[in-house]
From TrEMBL:
It comes from the Bacteria. This is Ribosomal protein S3AE.
Amino acid sequence: MLQALPFPIRQECPPGACVCGRDGLLDALETAPETDVRILRLTREEEKRLIARIEAVASYEELQHMTARMDQLLGMVVSITPSVHGVRTVRGLAIELAERPGLCRKTRQAIPAAIRRCLDRHPDIVYALLNARDLLGAA
């Protein structure tokens, strides 16, 4: 089935190092061709390019566009939510990727870390993110 995919896919992680479910996703593709395998497009090289691109984000609008494109192209849903106790630093933001088969553990850690580094360099994005929330904390 690997030959039937029209794009290069991420190499498998070493056994026991990750619980991404890549092989299960590929097996599901054989039984159900409509299985969403967009996440497999994120090869290690593409992940490095994505992280560099995230770190280069300079505005809140650009960050929103980037997260929307990640969802559209790879099926990765990024959520950035402020703590209910207030935000004094970037650490007060919860940055998470939604759980999904095929999403590597390292990627699940690297992308939020890249977003955090971007927000550290551009506090105005954090202020815009907080201003986008209403008084009750809903988006």
